[in-house]
Structures are given as C-alpha cells and as structure tokens.
Specification:
This protein is of the alpha+beta class. It has helices at residues 11-29, 81-88, 112-125, 128-134, and strands spanning 34-35, 38-46, 53-59, 61-62, 68-71, 94-96, 103-109, 142-147. A hairpin with a 5-residue loop joins strand 4 and strand 5 (68-71). The protein is globular. This is Nitroreductase.
Length: 148
C-alpha cells in the first residue's frame, strides 16, 4: 500500500469526503445551499491530469454584486486538488448556485491588499476560517470568481 504524504488526507478520509461531497451536491442542485451556517456552491473544474470533470461543494462569500469569493482551505499541508485543477484550467471553470444552472466563471487568485480586504470580510462572516488558518503551515489562497 502506498504511503500517504505527511499532512495530507489518507485514503479513508478521501473516500468519506467524496461521499459527503456527492450528498452536498445533490442538496445544492435541489435548491438547498447551506452547510454549517455558510452558503455553499458547486465548483466545477477539470482534473489537471485526467481531464475529467470534477465537482466540489464549497462555502462562498459575496464580493461586490456579481462575484463570489472562495477559500482554498483543507487539503492538509498542500492546496486542495480543486485549487490546483482551477489554476491549471481556469478557462473551464463554472459554478452552480442552489437550484440553478451552471455559470461559467473566471477565477482570480487575490494577493496583497485585495486578499487582505477579502480575508477580513470572510473571517468576519465566519471566524472559523481564522482558526483553521492559524493551524496551517500554508497561507490559504482566496479566489474571486466572476461570471464570464
């Protein structure tokens, strides 16, 4: 059996996550998009190596009138797979909001003052993100998604 990389989820954890994600995706498509007090969307990406479609439920935060912020938390000591897929194939990304059809989006990884402003807004809405960030050895990317 292959050894998992230190600080990354193991096979059982990944299996459980896939099952939970599939259940959450069904809820979102059915019109219910909330989890643990957060609004949730489905991020559609394409696997960086496989080229296969990937669907990931993620908490989102409003940014301006027509944009969404997502945070690449989770994934252990490395960025989550969905983040790597998103930056590898940004032109193939879309989101699904509860009960709505997919909307093609353009991702933009925030940095500097833009990231700091967005991070303050996110952690004001959900202080748990600040707690998660303190426990991590990497800085969580904040990504703005805008409709194409």
């Amino acid at each position: 059996m292959a050894q998992d990389q230190q600080g990354t989820p193991g096979a059982l954890s990944r299996w459980i996550q896939r099952k939970m994600n599939a259940r959450m995706n069904r809820k979102i498509r059915g019109g219910r998009g909330e989890f643990m007090g957060m609004d949730v969307l489905i991020l559609n990406t394409v696997g960086r190596r496989s080229g296969q479609p990937r669907e990931t439920p993620l908490a989102w935060f409003a940014d301006d009138e027509d944009a969404w912020l997502i945070v690449a938390s989770g994934g252990g000591s490395r960025h989550p797979d969905w983040h790597v897929n998103l930056v590898t194939h940004p032109d193939r990304a879309s989101i699904e909001l509860p009960g709505r059809a997919a909307v093609p989006v353009t991702p933009y990884v925030l940095d500097g003052a833009e990231r700091e402003r967005a991070w303050k807004s996110i952690t004001a809405a959900q202080p748990r993100y600040e707690k998660y960030q303190r426990k991590s050895d990497r800085i969580y990317p904040v990504i703005r998604l805008t409709p194409r």
